[in-house]
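Thanks for the sequence, V.! I ran Zinc-finger domain-containing protein right away. Repeating your input here for the record:
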Amino acid sequence: MSGCNDRQAKQAMAALFEKGQDGLDAEGFQRLRAHLATCPECQEAYTRLSRVESVLEQRALPQARSALLEQALMARLQPAPARTVVAPERKKWFASPLFMPLALSAAAATVALVVVAPSMQRQEPGVPEWQARSSAPGEQAWGVRAFCISPEGKVLAEARPGGTLTCAEGNAVQFSYTAPQPVRLSLEGLPSGGEPLRFFPSEGPAPEVAAGVDVTLPFSTPVQGGWLTGPVPVRARFTDAQGRTLADTQVTLQPR
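Predicted structure:
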């Protein structure tokens, strides 16, 4: 962070990695994430320290960060409106009640459309956390994490880009993304022998999302109805307004 003059960001970073949840509250964590989205120097330091911490704790998301993410998820439960998306009837499309708001106890589930997705490719081993396959080392980070969330909103497991998330029936899969600039984002899964699944968005073209670090997507996916019976590679594509691919990463979901 030698090139950054934001003392508050430096203090927040030090508090987070030295004391964890006890050193930085959820509001401070949100402010830090907003700063990271606009400061390459701090984002590089954050990514480097996160990788070290992940190795030490042997988990994709260290315990302190997991607790702060849980707080962020719970804070969004109240304002998250329930919505129902009706899928048009088409012979080659498969409709499934995959999506629901972050309020996991809500009874109304949204309907996901399944469309043909491009072929999947696994991320090469040795690529640092949050580093997209299309990005060279040292460039700004892109990526999508996957989390298994209990009905009470607790993070049970997580997977970084290129990793595998195990999630049991009755829980839900939640995604978060990191992008250094505003970008269009789409998440599609390809179960073996099945039709591609659209995780985000549920329908229509890929929407633009804001720049940010570990930004949770507004809807989670309940593990129910038999859609997760085997490994499901999920491809995250970051594209510009002209449809050009800026980054392309993958995470795999599997049942417990």
